[in-house]
TrEMBL record:
Regions annotated as coiled coil: none
PANTHER family: TRANSLATIONAL ACTIVATOR OF CYTOCHROME C OXIDASE 1
Matches recorded under Pfam families: TACO1_YebC_N, Transcrip_reg
Location in the cell: Cytoplasm
GO CC entries: cytosol
Source organism of the structure: Amphibacillus marinus
InterPro entries xref list: Integrase-like_N, TACO1_YebC-like_2nd/3rd_dom, TACO1_YebC_N, Transcrip_reg_TACO1-like, Transcrip_reg_TACO1-like_dom3, Transcrip_reg_TACO1_YeeN, YebC-like
GO biological process, one term: regulation of DNA-templated transcription
Keyword DNA-binding tagged: yes
TACO1/YebC-like N-terminal domain location: 3-74
Protein name: Probable transcriptional regulatory protein SAMN04488134_10540
Domain annotation TACO1/YebC-like second and third: ranges: 79-235
């Protein structure tokens, strides 16, 4: 698959030393999920998924509780989920998922982040067709063979399993995320190093020199935007 999921997560977590930006993004995402359904993860699958992701990033309980309480208390903030697509140096492709309460502001900021760093915005679907929506889960303390046996015994299909940095990374269809996770939890596996719904590129591109430097600046600029929740791309970065 070409993705080093544990490394990617660690880089994101270390980008802001106090991780306040990551916590703020999760707080917004938790609020939206709780607001759109019941503020209870047992009956709200979207909220349950966000909380599972938050756990892998060690988001503090008070951040989670505050966002859920805000949604339960009738918070009147309204957010739109919007996706932008674009291109960087040498044909690199980028997908940007946002949560925003001001569409015009977000569109302008995303466009500027592209334009100032050698990229440009594309139309809807111009990049996404080269990516596959995928569920990714990571666990430690098990081998690929052990995890595969557990899943096969439960008659759960996955796309692929690989070993990475003493962890097993599982790739599955998006609608199988909760099935895979529940199956593993039933076998006593409670901790996950990765728990994501992501967009995986069908092919990865290698950049070098100035192109790579410019591309990384563009990704940093996009990820630094308050309204941006996720950035996906097709560039292989160690």
């Amino acid at each position: 698959m070409g993705r080093k999921w544990n490394n990617i997560k660690e880089k994101k977590a270390n980008k802001d030393k106090n991780t306040s930006r990551i916590y703020a993004k999760f707080g917004r995402e938790i609020y939206v999920a709780a607001k759109q359904g019941e503020p209870n993860p047992d009956s709200n699958q979207a909220l349950k998924f966000v909380l599972e992701r938050a756990k892998t990033y060690s988001v503090p309980k008070h951040i989670i509780d505050r966002a859920i309480e805000k949604a339960s208390g009738g918070g009147d903030e309204s957010y739109d989920e919007l996706r932008y697509e674009g291109f960087g140096p040498s044909g690199s492709m980028v997908i940007v998922d946002t949560l925003t309460n001001n569409v015009n502001r977000t569109a302008a900021e995303v466009r500027t982040a592209f334009n100032k760093n050698g990229g440009n915005m594309g139309t809807s679907g111009s990049a996404a067709y080269m990516f596959d929506a995928t569920a990714v889960l990571g666990i430690e303390g098990q081998s690929v063979d052990q995890v595969l046996e557990l899943l096969m015994e439960a008659d759960v299909d996955v796309r692929d399993l690989i070993e990475e940095d003493d962890a097993v990374i599982i790739y599955a269809e998006p609608d199988q995320f909760h099935v895979v996770q529940s199956t593993l939890k039933e076998q006593g596996i409670e901790e996950f190093t990765v728990a994501e719904l992501t967009m995986l590129p069908q092919n990865e591109l290698s950049l070098a020199g100035d192109d790579l430097v410019q591309f990384e600046k563009m990704i940093d600029a996009l990820e630094d935007l308050d309204d941006v929740q996720q950035v996906y791309h097709n560039v292989e970065i160690d």
